[in-house]
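hiii, so i know i said id send this last week but things got crazy w the move. better late than never?? heres the sequnce for the chain we talked about at the cafe, plus the structure i predicted for it. fair warning i was half asleep when i ran it
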Amino acid sequence: MMKRDQCLKLLAKYHRDELVVPVYQATFEWLAIKPDAPTFTAVGAMGQASSLALGLALGLPERRVIVLDGDGSLLMNLGSLVTIANAAPSNLLHFVCENGTYEANGGHPIPGKDKLSFAGLARAAGYREAHEFAELDALEAALPAILRAAGPVLVDLKVEPGESYPQDWAYMHGPAAREKFRAAVRQSRGA
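okay and structure toks below
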């Protein structure tokens, strides 16, 4: 099993200018690990990160979009897998941080945690690729090719919490985060 923040540090190592849509704990970690990345903070929208990322991918086809979803969050909106596969955005990469819990709501176990395969659900929905990783070395070996692959691609990361990171809710929900993201989008469009 991998630490979620180690996975995100690895992703940050290969991140270039992709738009990133993280949720809940991954948001706090991502903002601390890669503060200058163009990040759409989707905290407070449990289950909607994949749909928000799809909208960005369709609206900005010239930009790669990475969603950092949670397993509990994705369970709230499983229909998005079929919608994403049907739209088939080649610029969408969907990472699921699977820890078997609704971490944001007290760590309650998700239903089917020992039976469910998010990669299997993505394949059945029609994603072009779906991968599962429980070892950091295997993820690192595959990550460069995954980041170049035509999407939609789902990557299921078997994780547990890592280090603690500051939880700046005021920034997360404030106008500075939104304006920073808007500026990044404007820059990508040459506006």
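btw The two ends are 43 Å apart (CA to CA). thought thatd interest u
miss u guys!!
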